[in-house]
Specification:
Blueprint (H helix, E strand, L loop, with lengths): L1 H109 L1
């Protein structure tokens, strides 16, 4: 009788372990699916991050080019203002010279 009790207990314990193993496999399958989904989501996010970083680099490059063009335009403007100032000085000198020549001409013609 004792053997029968042991055998019955073993069968019951085996049945419990089989049920526990089945439940555990179901939980593991659910977790594996979740991990797989998270890995795929992480890959998609990494791809999006790489695209974003590429766009940031492109925009930074455009801003750098714009800044360089702006500095060049400022230099060109300063150079143009210098040239205009030089022309104004030359024009004023020429006007004084013409005025002086006009006086000399008026003086000579009166003689």
């Amino acid at each position: 009788m004792k053997e029968c009790e042991v055998t019955a207990n073993l069968r019951r314990r085996c049945s419990e372990l089989e049920t526990e193993a089945r439940d555990t496999r179901a939980k593991v399958a659910t977790l594996e699916k979740r991990v797989s989904d998270l890995v795929q989501e992480a890959q998609e996010q990494n791809t999006a991050i790489e695209r974003y970083q590429g766009e940031v680099i492109r925009v930074e490059t455009l801003l750098t080019q714009r800044d360089l063009a702006l500095y060049q335009a400022k230099d060109d403007l300063a150079e143009a203002r210098g040239q205009v100032s030089q022309w104004q000085s030359q024009a004023e000198a020429s006007a004084k010279e013409v005025k002086g020549n006009s006086r000399n001409l008026a003086f000579v013609t009166r003689m």
